[in-house]
Amino acid sequence: MTVEAVKPENESYVFQGTINKKAPMVLGGKGIRMTVEKDGKVSEVIDAVTGAAVGALGWGDEEILPIIEEAARNHTYTFPSLIGNKPSEDLAKFYIDHSPEGVFSAALWCCSGSESNENAMKIIRQYQIERGCPEKTKIISRATSYHGFTLGALSISNCFRADMFKDILIDQEKCLKMPPCYPYRFQKKDETEAQYVQRLLDDLEKIIIDNDPKTVSCVVVETLPGSSLGTAPPPKGYLPGLRALCNKYDLIFMLDEVMCGTGRSNPNGKLNCWENFLEPKDAPDIQTVGKTLGSGYVTIAGVLVGPKIRDAYIKGSNSVFGSHTYASHGFNCAVALGVQKKIMRDGLTSNIFKMGNLMGQKLEDALLKEDNIVGDVRGIGGFWSLEFVKDKVTKELFPVELDVGHRYQQVCYDNGLNVMGMQGNADGINGDIALFAPSFVITEADVDEIVSRAVKSVNELTAQLKAEGQW
Ligand SMILES: Cc1ncc(COP(=O)(O)O)c(C=O)c1O
């Protein structure tokens, strides 16, 4: 047996990110602020992205301890297919009751957004078998999309994260891709919004027809894409158009709301992002959620199943094939339910919708018309992004090696602001954005502080790039 030598202080034992060096370490947090140690220096930063759009409640919430304590006191683990638990039932009922009536009728709880999408893909597959349509195997998702890092979820994604694994993904003839919905970059100059939407819908219909509609199973999109092309709200008519095509060709309509859902961008003080764009009659047949559900205090995500799917199962085998050890985990569900009840009681989803839109407006006012690298400010409710371009008129991208999105993240950090820089929005590889997804508790003063630091950082990075002859 070999015993590994103790690593030097800054070496990491954790196999993630940069392997041989410790990542910046969080030391604590309170509300929208957190304390982070980086390269030996401790600083307080405003968390404007709450990890990866996770922290709905804000950090160190005073009421979370009693919620966790009660959940732990009442928790006895059971394997969910054999013996169920009350919190998973209660959380499912809560989500169903706080969604438009009749849209969802059951939920499955799991531990990550990727896992929820894996499960949704399998639930849809079993649905097609249960109702006697086993030939329906093909899934249509979008180019430049992200649905998670497991192999199934990567197979329906289309971005730089999937590229390295392409040889071991699900056969891409079964995972078809339609064009992204991304007006800033792809709506033509001489095209109206309605014409652009129609072009996208025509493209989808052609894919369905060319691939034999009888073999197509479902269409899946992120309601408001986040870590793919950056919070581009779907234009009017786009999501209803997808729903109509799903109805026409007998396909399941699935929405991925892992990042944008569960209160982050709901206009009615409730949960679902699609309520901005769809009438309840056009709601998805199945939907995945995660992130803000447990607000970072527990690892929980889920699949919401509509009556069409649930009823087909009941008429068929009346059982769900397969399960995970930690599905419907009672402790996780109890904490998530406590978090969600508090969010509803305090009107926090209404607050983030209002304050988030204010933040977006202020970013737009301060950045769009000025001479800097910001080409677009887009989003809705508590989920926004900046898109960086070399030229505001031509929308020319920065060279990928400059890594402008991540550089912006670093400049923001140095200015006491945590945001998420990303690359690949334009085509899966090129393009630079920064994401903003603050906690639901932000006040107007917090909005001003976030905007002021974000604008300062844009100006500093613009000046740096100018000095380097890159802008
Ligand atoms: C739309 C979407 N779906 C799924 C996932 C995967 O979630 P997780 O990282 O919890 O597995 C993400 C993660 O960012 C996401 O943005």
UniProtKB/TrEMBL annotation:
UniProt keyword annotation of Cell membrane present? no
Give GO cellular component annotations, separated by semicolons: cytosol
Q: Which Pfam families match?
A: Aminotran_3 (PF00202)
Which InterPro entries does the record associate with it?
Aminotrans_3, PyrdxlP-dep_Trfase, PyrdxlP-dep_Trfase_major, PyrdxlP-dep_Trfase_small
Q: Name one GO molecular function term.
A: pyridoxal phosphate binding
**Keywords for this protein:** Pyridoxal phosphate
Keyword Signal on entry: no
Q: Which Gene3D superfamilies match?
A: Aspartate Aminotransferase, domain 1, Type I PLP-dependent aspartate aminotransferase-like (Major domain)
Q: What is the similarity comment for this entry?
A: Belongs to the class-III pyridoxal-phosphate-dependent aminotransferase family.
Protein's name according to its UniProt entry:
LAFE_0D01244g1_1
